Amino acid sequence: MSRVFYVPLADGLFHSTPWTTGPWGPDAQHAGPPAALLARAIEALAPDGSHVARVTSEILRPVPITEVRVEARTVRPGRRVALLEARLTAGDEIVMTASAWAIRTAELDIPPDPAADTPSPPDDLPDLFGGRKETDYIAAMEWRFVSGSFFDPGPAVAWLRMRMPLVEGEEPTPLQRVLTAADSASGISGALDFERWMYVNPDLTVHLHRPLEGEWVCLDAVTVPEPSGVGLTSAALHDARGPVGRSAQSLFVARR
Fold first, then answer.
1. Model pLDDT, residue 138
2. Could you tell me which residues come within 8 angstroms of residue 189 by beta carbon, excluding any fewer than 6 positions away?
3. CA–CA separation, 254 vs 232, rounded Å?
4. In terms of Cα–Cα distance, which of 175, 251, 171, 254 is closest to 212?
5. What DSSP character marks residue 124?
């Protein structure tokens, strides 16, 4: 089996491998890889010299581990800003969509933020799932925790890195690396006991003020559940140089 998330079959058509398998069951993908696959299609349409500054993914239903098709279009062309959309279909169903703003880049005389900081680097931290035998998303990613844990409720800071390409034969782009990791913010920072509670995000929004540098993405994440059954996960996103953006996920919260 290929050590990739997706194998291209034809223009816009992909075979989803078991490495995309998420925590909700053996037949459903983790939202990170399909979010990155939609971002890949969006990047292909982004104007030259632009930066994809915001991507919002809508998870309409569980994404099955099967052949999927991705289509993208330009909604609002422009030299300064452009609005782009993509959709992911499985069979006859649209299972996930994404919209993005691409903003033109320029060289401006703006000093860097002197307060910019980033968590401790991942080099000397243990790889939490390095020996995992399952073929799934968790095993497809490298996880190094600065603080917090999958197993203890509360905020967490973790570095994530893809162990394999998103699409066979391609080097992941900085945007694809961020989108593959960012949906995990709610998973690492759960405020409630996983054995008693479930929380599912129907969306993922990522704002990026600059491209990621290198392969590692750091999620400094916190989850806030409300007694109403609605919650929010937010995360500061970093690379080795410092902050790159933020992510947010709306949450449906319920007892198991």
1. 95
2. 148, 154, 155, 156, 219, 221, 222, 223, 233, 235
3. 14
4. 175
5. T
Nearest to 72 by CA among 85, 58, 91, 57: 85
Return the CA Rg of the chain. 18
Name the pTM for this structure: 0.96
Calpha distance 96→84 (Å, rounded)? 15
The CA distance from 252 to 238, in Å, is 26
Low-confidence ranges of the chain (pLDDT < 70): 1, 114-116
Dist CA 237 CA 246 (whole Å): 5
DSSP strands (E only) in 60-164? 67-76, 81-90, 93-104, 141-147, 156-162
Q: How far is CA 226 from CA 82, 195, 199, 235, in A?
A: 36, 18, 11, 18
Q: Left, alpha or beta for 245 (phi > 0: left; psi -120 to 50: alpha)?
A: left
**Does residue 247 contact residue 204 with C-beta atoms inside 8 Å?**
yes
Question: Rounded to the nearest 5°, which phi and psi values hold at 146?
Answer: -80, -40
* DSSP per-residue string spanning 1-16: --SSSEEEEETTEEEE
